[in-house]
Amino acid sequence: MKGLEDILREHPFLSGFSPEQSDLIVGCARNHRFNAGQYLFHEGDPADEFYLIRRGKVALEIVAPGKPPIVFATLGEGEIVGASWLVAPHRTMFDARAVELTRAIGIDAACLRGKCDEDHSLGYEMMKAFLPILVQRLNATRLQILDVYGRA
Amino acid sequence: MSAAPQLDPFLPDIYSVRDVRRELPDTVTLEVAPKAGARPDFEPGQFNMLYAFGIGEIAISLSGSAGSGETFIHTVREVGAVSAAISKLEVGAELGLRGPYGAGWPVNAAEGSDVVFVAGGLGLAPLRPAILHVLANRNRYGRVVLLFGSRNPTDLLYRDELAVWRQRLDVDIDVTVDHADAEWRGNVGVVPALIPRASFDPTDTIAFVCGPEVMMRFSVAALRDAGVPLDHVYVSMERNMKCAIGLCGHCQFGPTFVCKDGPVMRFDAIADIFSIREI
Ligand SMILES: Cc1cc2nc3c(=O)[nH]c(=O)nc-3n(C[C@H](O)[C@H](O)[C@H](O)COP(=O)(O)OP(=O)(O)OC[C@H]3O[C@@H](n4cnc5c(N)ncnc54)[C@H](O)[C@@H]3O)c2cc1C
Ligand code: FES
Questions:
Q1: Residues in chain B within 8 Å Cβ distance of A37
Q2: What is the CATH number of the domain that holds A97?
Q3: Among candidates A23, A31, A28, A33, which has minimal Cα distance to A2?
Q4: Same domain, B191 and B71
Q5: Residue A30 in domain
Q6: Residue B97 and residue B119 share a domain
Q7: Which end of chain A is more exposed for a tag (fewer CB within 10 A), N or C?
Q8: ipTM score
Q9: Could you report the per-residue pLDDT of B50-99, keeping only the tens digit for each?
Q10: Are strands B144-150 and B233-236 parallel, antiparallel or unpaired?
Q11: Packing angle of the helix pair A120-146, B213-225 (nearest 10 deg)
């Protein structure tokens, strides 16, 4: 059976990191399994972990009082759930729910933040890995807001 | 010897409605047949001018199979007076029809390559003849991917047919919606976001993109980022049309006339003018 290290090294998120940096990240990682319907985290929770999805699908939801939750994005294999761990005050901004059985690697945020603070080249690589994801999601959100399929 | 009589290119033929299928609250699919003679052949991606008597004429893509048949299939969304009148036609009603017109999807030139269809909303209708052609001649193509984005799960066009296509093991279909409630088990997000997740060989892919212009812009950018050269990307343009035969200039898009140089155009040929407003 593959160990956590091998699994993590195969994840696309780690492709930009050197083997030494990957070792540091592996040191903060653990395996997770979420059943369909189980929440990875809820809005307002401390962002103490983020997740690299190995298999399955995760829905990001916003809940407005008195209304059913609205799913604004789903993330799948190879993608990352959670960026609030990077930015103070380190609190999640939405709910994340497994739509189907989901296997993921959780990275302990306090552990990784500590290592990034100590080793700025690791921190820089981490920013380089996260920024394109954030920009892509911002662009996707812009397109979503335009509601392009609506009537002109 | 006297010359053959010159037919008026603006004179529509009379067609009658054979079948009506409601797709969505504002969208219907009509099957129409000529009152006399056979319907002309057409290529996937071409369009007809449909005339609602006394109201007006609009461009509507062919959305049925381009194989042999007696009828044309058109999927029409009600947005204004003419499309509303056409959408309300019942079985047996008559309408005028000119066409088919325009340049279609290069389905023959794509043989041997992977084919990626990227459709948004009603944009699946003009792509449908190309999809049907590729599926009917599946062994002539490499990997076939269909990425389809819609506003929400209840607005999905051709839902039943999508379910049938999904049964096939030789085509990858991914559907996404902009918004959904927790009941929806599919993808949520915009259709360009599906492109990096899809599996195809970007160096040997022909991409066919159809939908609202903003969605096409973002999709083309995602295809380019995935490594697909822009001269392998085709988009279908919509401009208001009048003559539909390259005479009036109504549909001018930069130096091109969408009615005869398009509606399907190779993206690199129009890239410079594509994102400029109000051309
Ligand atoms: C090559 C080509 C292929 C087309 N294929 C199809 C097709 O398969 N099915 C289909 O339903 N339509 C298609 N269209 C669009 C269709 O021609 C227009 O929706 C139609 O001309 C609208 O005419 P109308 O008189 O009903 O509305 P108008 O009174 O002309 O317009 C009413 C309102 O709708 C808006 N509008 C006009 N056109 C569009 C549009 N394309 N999308 C969204 N809003 C619009 C106008 O800005 C206006 O606000 C195609 C257009 C072209 C050029
Ligand atoms: S519609 Fe007249 S030139 Fe194109």
A1: none
A2: 2.60.120.10
A3: A31
A4: no
A5: yes
A6: no
A7: N
A8: 0.82
A9: 999 999 999 999 999 998 789 999 999 999 999 999 999 999 999 999 98
A10: unpaired
A11: 150
Give the closest of A74, A143, A149 to B187, CB-based: A74
In the stretch 16-35 of chain B, residues with CB closer than 8 A to chain A read 26
Instruction: Please identify, among B101, B132, B161, the residue that sits at the C-terminal boundary of a domain.
Output: B101
Question: Using an 8 Å Cβ cutoff, are A59 and B182 in contact?
Answer: yes
User: d(Cα A132, Cα A138) in Å, to the nearest integer?
Assistant: 10
Interface of A with B (CB under 8 A): 57, 59-61, 68-74, 76-78, 97, 99-100, 136, 139-140, 143-144, 146-152
Residue A52 lies in a domain: yes
Q: Is B243 in the pocket of ligand 2 (CB under 6 A)?
A: yes
Residue B250 Cβ contacting ligand 2 at under 6 Å: yes
Question: Does some domain include residue B248?
Answer: yes
**How many domains are contained in chain A?**
1
B156: number of Cβ within 10 Å: 21
Same domain, B81 and B145: no
Tell me the chain A residues in contact with residue B209 when contact means C-beta distances shorter than 8 Å.
none
Q: B50 and B146: one domain?
A: no
Inter-chain residue contact B182 with A61, CB threshold 8 Å: yes
Phi, psi at residue A43, to the nearest 5°? -55, 135
Task: Provide the CATH number for the domain around residue B260.
Answer: 3.40.50.80
- Residues comprising chain A, all counted: 152
Q: Is the C-beta atom of B27 inside 6 A of ligand 1?
A: no
The residue range of the domain holding B154 is: 114-272
Structure tokens at B247: 């005479």
**The two structure tokens encoding residue B164:** 């049938």
Are the CB atoms for B114 and B134 separated by under 8 Å?
Answer: no
In chain B, how many domains are there?
A: 2
DSSP three-state, residue B192: helix
Task: Judge whether B6 lies within some domain.
Answer: no
Residue A36, pLDDT score: 95
